[in-house]
Amino acid sequence: MIRGVGIDSVEVERMKKIVEKGDKFAKRVLTPKEFAQYQQLNGKRKVEYLGGRFSLKESFSKAMGTGLGKYVGFQDIETLWDDLGHPVMTSTKFSGNIFPSITHDDYEVITFVVLEELN
User: Fold this and answer.
1) How buried is 16 (Cβ within 10 angstroms: 0-12 exposed, 13-18 middle, 19+ buried)?
2) Which residues carry out catalysis?
3) Which of 77, 78, 82, 89 is deepest in the core (most CB within 10 A)?
4) Rounded to the nearest 5 degrees, what angle is found at the Cα of 6, between the Cα atoms of 77 and 87?
5) 85 closest CA partner among 47, 45, 27, 29
6) How much is the pTM?
7) Which of 51, 52, 64 has its CA nearest to residue 91?
8) Angle between helix 43-64 and helix 12-20 axes, rounded to 10 deg
9) CATH number for the domain running over 2-116
10) What is the mean pLDDT of residues 93-107?
11) Could you tell me the residue ranges of all domains in the chain?
């Protein structure tokens, strides 16, 4: 049964300015494993990665119906690549199936998350 869906978008230019300021925002938003992946990237790819992970976490929290804050925080959600480069999302706040989707172009990152309960 579908528990919830969430969608979010981030402007690439806004995220580029954040990345140019250093790693403070990335360290707050990304889990240690996500941050390790992030550090391996450069330029545009780094901006897309951080924008995507931030937006995925927003989409997840919207699908939960809580938004980011007291119940769901940045460190409660992790999205890593599988062997084929697909995003695989896990969370300490949800034990069902999580289906993330992410797309981006030169201007915007858009994410969509579907939560499926196992019962």
Assistant:
1) middle
2) 62, 104
3) 77
4) 50
5) 45
6) 0.94
7) 64
8) 110
9) 3.90.470.20
10) 96
11) 2-116
